[in-house]
Prior knowledge:
The structure is a homodimer of 153-residue chains. Chain A has a single domain, classed as Winged helix-like DNA-binding domain superfamily/Winged helix DNA-binding domain (Arc Repressor Mutant, subunit A), CATH 1.10.10. Chain A is 65% helix and 10% strand. Chain A is built from 6 helices and 2 strands, in the order ααααββαα. Chain A has helices at residues 11-32, 39-50, 56-63, 67-79, 102-123, 128-150, and strands spanning 83-90, 93-100. Chain A has a two-stranded antiparallel sheet with strand order 1-2. The longest helix of chain A is centred in the C-terminal third of the chain and has 23 residues, at 128-150. The model of chain A has no long low-confidence stretch (mean pLDDT 88). At the A-B interface, α1, α2, α5 and α6 of A face α1, α2, α5 and α6 of B. The structure holds a DNA duplex (30 and 30 nucleotides).
Amino acid sequence: MAKAQHYIDSIYYDLELTSHAMKALGNHLFEHLNLGLTPVEHAALDTIFCNTGICQRDLAKLILKDRANTGRILASLEEKGLITRFVDVKNNRLVRKMGVTEKGHKVLEQVRKKIEAYVKSISVQFSEEEIDQLQQTLRKFRENILELANMKI
Amino acid sequence: MAKAQHYIDSIYYDLELTSHAMKALGNHLFEHLNLGLTPVEHAALDTIFCNTGICQRDLAKLILKDRANTGRILASLEEKGLITRFVDVKNNRLVRKMGVTEKGHKVLEQVRKKIEAYVKSISVQFSEEEIDQLQQTLRKFRENILELANMKI
DNA sequence: ATAATATTGTTGCAAATGCAACATGTAATT
DNA sequence: AATTACATGTTGCATTTGCAACAATATTAT
């Protein structure tokens, strides 16, 4: 109960700080390595790659953006030729689906290679098991939070 | 090395998700409990409380906002009568310092009480030690990231 | 068959956020 | 003494982001 008595000491703040630092590093890397896309564009591209046939709304939930912004991100990716959007049928409903193009695949591979080095340099001090443990804890913690939110407290 | 091959599996994403969920819960609570201030205003207020005599720029760094926004947040807090801003001297330089008013203290206490219950309900599934461990790990991880950023990779 | 409901994507607008330039005043250097 | 460098806070503007309304289409209910 001495815990989280002040904002600065709260887990909320630690999450903010860590997420903020991680995002800053990501922005820096993507800009500095001249990857030709932004972190959020890469997030969308890779998420599409991992979820073929996903619709825009579901993608929005995964990348934590609203529908409007997701549409804008997709427009940018399409303009860059990294994805194609086409009309398909889902539950007998017309839906604009999307797929990663050849160019998109290449970019994903390129990003993966270029970033691997930095992931490794983080892993120098953090073992794979430690990272794994941290991710699991975050997941468990998150589920707890989402439960609270769903209770509509 | 199977780790973080895709965005969805990365620690980056887990941090985004968890931080996002936490922020959503915070927004929900502050709005629903009619606390009369936003989460970021509370963050600023409590940070000022914990760092008497802090200047605006240093506060900005702590609450992760830029100077402009910090100024706006402070203007709002001042308008609500939760802080006072006054000109003081720091290293023989004129600086606008700030302090928490009586009303500000009361609000902080009120928020602390009202939120305590929810912190507890989270702690039901997460022991104090687990939360503590998570915070420590996040801190260590963050320091690692900041080192990388400082290397200007 | 018609109306109500649900799902999807887009558009317009408002709010939040940050960057860069600026204004002010102090310390340091020459 | 004058100039340069530094620290602080503010203002203007552009970008990002999200919300709410809308359009289009399909499903379900009456």
